[in-house]
Structure formats: structure tokens, C-alpha cells
């Protein structure tokens, strides 16, 4: 499928999706979000893909929703079309792991898109922010919700109320990102992490993703029960038998996703 606002390629069982609207700092317009949700859906269905890496350019991950496009709309327009509802839902339903590799600015919807991935690896030049307040709006796809759960109320309030940016060191300190790497190493590091995940059993990988996400969607008690039952259900897989046998036989496991 040929896209105009993103570049999607597959390398070593990893789908690498690049946001590519340099003239608009990768702003998320309607076309880009349609193409992105399509590319995610394709990667999720494609047997040759085991992990997804989402990135932008070195200077900008994404500068947020497209302000020029949004500025033309009124309340009834955005409410009626449920702006950002369906396409974002599609991204949230992807079952394969998604790593966001963030270099440069991840602002507004860009920061929110990064937070929608399963984890973020960022470059030393990364800057995260929820500057929607400067436009007279609030964040629309997780900037007041996911960010608060990830970095706590104090920093989420600070960022959403003042619109200030968080640099890579603060993002790592606050738990927003899992690793910070030198800027030129970002893609190699994210691809290496993705290839590491691709070596695991795809069944176990899905179960891990579902279990960790439960921590954000349920009470601790329900989450722990979900985790324990998922752990139990892994004993119905051939990959559990293989994984444990390989450990005892001091060899690498040969997972078959069964
Ligand atoms: C539309 C954008 C844009 C955006 C940049 N551009 N961000 N167009 N929507 N979000 C356009 C500019 O208008 C300009 O177009 C060109 O890209 C280059 O932008 P500059 O500002 O000159 O580039 P630079 O100096 O490199 O600064 C980069 C930047 C800055 C720091 C990222 O562009 C910026 O602050 N952008 C806006 C960030 C923001 O407010 N994001 C929140 C959006 S609201 P021309 O035509 O002049 O060359 C949002 C709501 C989320 O995300 C709701 C759910 C998705």
C-alpha cells in the first residue's frame, strides 16, 4: 500500500512506520491518521510482522494535531464526526507490541500518540509537551489521562497548565520513557529492542501486553487476578513446555507461537 504521509516498511519481522509530513512537522491531519491506522492494522494482520516501531524524523516526532485543519471546525463538526475517536480506537486495538522511537518534538497529539504505544525509547534531543492550553483547548487523546497515570498528577498538571516541555532526562526520571539513547542511535536501539521481542513467543508477548495494560484499566485486585489467570493459561501452550525445557537443557528455546 502506497502512503503519502507515512513510510511503512518491514525489516527483520519488525514493521517500521515513519511519520512523514516534514513541511508540517508531522502534524497529525486526517489523512495521516487514516494512513497510520491503516498501516497499524496491516502490521497487526501480517504474519511476517512481530513488533512495530513508530517514529518521526530526527527533529520532530510529531507536532500534534493539525492546527490548520482543526481551526476550521466548530463544536458541532468535531462532536458530530467524533474527531479523533475512531482512528485512535483502531490504534488502541493493535495487539502486537508498539515501540515509539521519539526524537525531537513530541507535542500535543504527538506526545499522546507516543504514550499510546507500549513503551517509548527517546533520543537525547526529545522534547515532550502538552501545549494545547496555548491554543485554547485541552488535550484530546490522553494528555490529561495517560500522562497523569505515567508521570503523576504534579507533572501532568504542570505540563498541561503551563504548556512547558519536558526534556529527555526529565522524561526518563519521571517514567514517561523507558530509555534515553544518543540521538543517532535511536532507530538502531528501537529496532534492536523490537527484534528482541520478535524472538519471543508471539502468544506470550500478546499475553504480557494485555496483562500490563490491565494495570491501567482495572483495580489492583482485578488486575492481579487477570495476571494470575493469564499466567495459568500459558501452561496450555507448547511454548511454555518448550521454554521451561530449554532452560533445564541449557539451550535457547525454539518458540513456535503455539
Ligand atoms: C499544523 C503545523 C503544526 C501543527 C507546525 N506546523 N506544527 N501545522 N499543525 N501542529 C507547521 C507550521 O505552521 C509551519 O508551516 C511549519 O509546520 C513549520 O513550523 P515552525 O513552527 O516554523 O517550525 P519550528 O520552528 O521547527 O518549530 C517546530 C515546533 C512548532 C516547535 C513543533 O511548529 C510548534 O510549536 N508547533 C505546534 C505545536 C502544538 O501546539 N501542538 C499541539 C497541537 S493541538 P508554514 O506553512 O508556516 O511553513 C493538539 C491537540 C491534540 O495536538 C488533540 C488530539 C490529537
Automatic annotation (TrEMBL):
InterPro entries: ClpP/crotonase-like_dom_sf, Enoyl-CoA_hyd/isom_CS, Enoyl-CoA_hydra/iso, Enoyl-CoA_hydra_C. One of its GO terms (molecular function) is 3-hydroxyacyl-CoA dehydratase activity. One of its GO terms (biological process) is fatty acid beta-oxidation. Its EC number is 4.2.1.17. Signal peptide: none annotated. It holds the Pfam family ECH_1. PANTHER family: ENOYL-COA HYDRATASE, MITOCHONDRIAL, ENOYL-COA HYDRATASE-RELATED. This is enoyl-CoA hydratase. Could possibly oxidize fatty acids using specific components. It comes from Paracoccus alkanivorans. Keywords: Fatty acid metabolism, Lipid metabolism, Lyase. It is an enzyme of class 4 (lyase). Belongs to the enoyl-CoA hydratase/isomerase family. It catalyses: a (3S)-3-hydroxyacyl-CoA = a (2E)-enoyl-CoA + H2O; a 4-saturated-(3S)-3-hydroxyacyl-CoA = a (3E)-enoyl-CoA + H2O.
